[in-house]
Design brief:
about 350 residues, mainly alpha, elongated
Length: about 350
Amino acid sequence: MTDARNRWAAPFGWIARASRVPGEERRSLVQTTKAAVAAVLAWIIATAVLDLPQPFLAPYAAVFLVQATVYRSLRGWAQQVGAVSAGVLLAAGAGQFIPSVTVALGLVVFTGLLIGSWRGFGDSGVWVGVTGMLLVSYGNATEPVLLADRLLETALGAAIGAVLNAVVLPPLHGGRLRAATSRLASAVADVLDETAALVRGESPEAADVLQDRMLDVRSLVAEAEEAIGWTREGRYLNLRGRRETREEPLANLVTLWPPLTQLIDAVSEAARSEQPFRHPGEHGRGVVGDLLEALAEVARSGDPDRLDRCSKLVEEIDRLLVTPTDEVTTSIGLGAMALPARRIVQQLHAD
């Protein structure tokens, strides 16, 4: 009973979130509304203003040109108009030189799909063959006026969709970027804390758990890279581009992935090793653990002022590596951990 109630309530919850929170739901609602408005405008202009007969391509093109970014809308307009133009010309040629509709249909579809595979047409390439097929099958291929109408309808609808998307609340992807930043920062901080616990002497079995956690972090890094790409593309040609969230904090977290992987590999290898000289002594492990916990705090807070403590701990590790102590035989394991840890601190300082 509860599950059924939740299923019925889900759409209302989605609408409530869209009106309350500036997230994915609101962006989807805005884009859907713009697509509907673009279709209606394209139909009204095509029928009431231009008096085009059966202008079904106008609203169709308008809907598909309300894309996730302004750049994709403008690029899609050029691609779709180009694809439909090629299909119209192909149908016109078939109508002039091939008397059989059946033969013309097959040749137009075959040739149109081959031409549409050119990467310059993008996702709109299929419309070379489809447009030619529709015109030939409807018997419009031999009527230049109707061919011109189909081209005009497509250009009109595509232009309305692209312009509306570019002018009315052009889409931004800052929400996706902020969410990805928060998730990745939290995951990196948790992994650093777990690595610190392993350095300090937690059971070697914890190294296997840590490796599984790293797979989760790798997935979040991929998500972060995708969010950065969407944000950069969303800013391009966007009238609201200056309001877009900066991607630098997330990009900086992504750059920590290679040294973080090396650090955890070094710690895990040392923890599993049965050779005493591979694992640092108690004091060295304590310093490395303190460094990892300090880095976790920086990752969570994003506060560069906390890096001073990290730098001091790196200097302490360097001193342990060059100064003879009772733990001198552990320098191999300590050195393997020190290099990626130093790279993480340097990368955070550079950012």
